Amino acid sequence: MGNNSGNSGNNLGNNSGILDNISDNNSGNNLGNNLSNKHNKLSHIQNSKLTDKDIDLLLQSLQKNKEKIFKYVLNLCITNDEYDTGPIFSQKTASDINIPYKSFKTILNRLIKTKLIARNEGKTSQVGYIDIHIFKNVKDKAIIFYGLNSILNNSLGNGLGNGLGNNYDSSSSNLYKTTTIGEAKNLSKSKSQLPSEWQKVDLAPLTAIGFTENHLLQISSQNKLSADMVQDSIYAFAFDLQENNKAKTIKSDPINFFMGILRTGKIYTFPGNYESPQDKSLRLYRENKRKIEQERIVAEKEAINLAFNEWFIKLTNGQKIELLPELLRHNTSSEKLGKSKILESSARTHFETEIWPDVKNGITKQKQ
After folding, report:
1. Using CA atoms in the order 121, 142, 75, 179, what is the torsion angle rounded to 10 degrees?
2. Which pLDDT value is given to residue 363?
3. Mind listing the pLDDT tens digit for each residue in 9-34?
4. Which helix (H) or strand (E) holds 317?
5. Are 323 and 346 contacting, i.e. CB atoms less than 8 angstroms apart?
6. CA atoms of 168 and 77, how far apart (whole Å)
7. Residue ranges, the chain, pLDDT below 50
8. Tell me, what's the pLDDT at 303?
9. Cβ atoms 119, 130 nearer than 8 A
């Protein structure tokens, strides 16, 4: 891969000066003429000299602004059903994808040196443009790598058409064109292509970051990991993102980071504080039941106290004496009854065992 990437600087780097002159030359050509002329286009179905493995590695290594530009180019080529972006204005494009113009030119040149994309000759004038070519094998791999829906629904697509010529169709239906090679059409059938055990894999924990069946199909086709290993990895990574804020320590997109690990045949290891979805459900169930039971006990104790006080103050002295142990009944005067802790204990025991069950039943029946 190193030789391929290095040679690209010799093959394509000499054209890098074109970008520096875009929008800076004040010729009198009008916009219509500029956009209607395309010079020295590369072959419509030309492949990059990169191997599939090299392309995978390069896609995994794309970070931040370099990946923004690549996705922008890929989105345009899919949308236009072509391998070329058509005329785009570099300054406007840089603004649309929130990259400083000077940085955009530098990053684009570096991206071209990877041989994932190449530059068709643009037009240097006051309304000059650039025209980027994506190689056939790179486009095919990138659609699988990112997933078609993820590409078309990417927020970068919001600015598409703002910096483009008249040849760009911004209608919503055009956004869902597929590639001429039919690769994108096949992606919609990915689930039926998965082995039965892989169709059972739960993707839900990672759908928020764009993990799809297309990614699963790519992993399963490598035969490096079992479906159970991938399922565990999905649960582990989702837990790390949600509970340990893992995204803050990842330089690239979470989905690219995750796929980069699985493509090498490695699993995503469980963090030290990991708790499986099943264990979490059981724990929450136990905690909830325990809380409900504790609240019930507290509530019943309070209800017993209130009911006991109401019942006890209605008792006559004779009734209270009858609640005392037999040995104390004949030696207790009315004056001592009010201060007797033995009486209170005996009365409470009698109330809770003999009186409260009927009182409780009466309360619950009223609420039904």
Report:
1. 90
2. 84
3. 333 333 333 333 333 333 333 333 33
4. helix 317-322
5. yes
6. 11
7. 1-40, 43, 125-127, 155-189
8. 93
9. yes
**Residue pair 321/330 in contact by the 8 Å Cβ criterion:** no
Domain assignments of the chain as residue spans, ordered by start: 2-187, 190-263, 277-367
142: enclosing H helix or E strand: helix 136-146
Sorted by sequence, the CB contacts under 8 Å of residue 263 that are 6+ apart come out as: 56, 60, 218, 219, 222, 224
Interior/surface letters 292-315, b for 16+ CB within 10 angstroms, e for the rest: eeeeeeeeeeeebeebbeeebeee
The per-residue pLDDT for 293 is 95
Instruction: Please answer whether residues 58 and 98 qualify as being in contact, where contact means their C-beta atoms are separated by less than 8 angstroms.
Output: no
Position 208, amino acid: A
Report helix, strand or coil for 173.
Answer: helix
| pLDDT (0 to 100) of residue 337 | 60
Find out whether 251 and 63 touch, Cβ atoms under 8 Å: yes
Q: What is the torsional sign of CA 108, 10, 57, 240? A: negative
Query: Tokens in use for 168?
Result: 């760009």
Q: What H or E segment, with its residue span, contains residue 122?
A: strand 117-123
Which residues have CB under 8 Å from 89's CB, separation 6+?
A: 22, 23, 127, 128, 129, 130, 163, 164
Closest CA to 109 of 173, 155, 65, 165: 65
Smallest Cα–Cα separation from 237: which of 193, 199, 267? Answer: 267
Name the phi and psi angles at 170, rounded to 5.
-95, 10
Q: CA–CA separation, 364 vs 138, rounded Å?
A: 71
Could you tell me which residues come within 8 angstroms of residue 7 by beta carbon, excluding any fewer than 6 positions away?
A: 49, 115
Report d(CA 146, CA 226) in Å as an integer.
21
In the structure, how many helices (H) and strands (E) does the chain have? 21, 2
Query: DSSP letters of 207-275?
Result: GGGT--HHHHHHHHHHTSS-HHHHHHHHHHHHHHHHHS-GGGG-SS-HHHHHHHHHHTT---PPPTT--
Amino acid type, 112: I
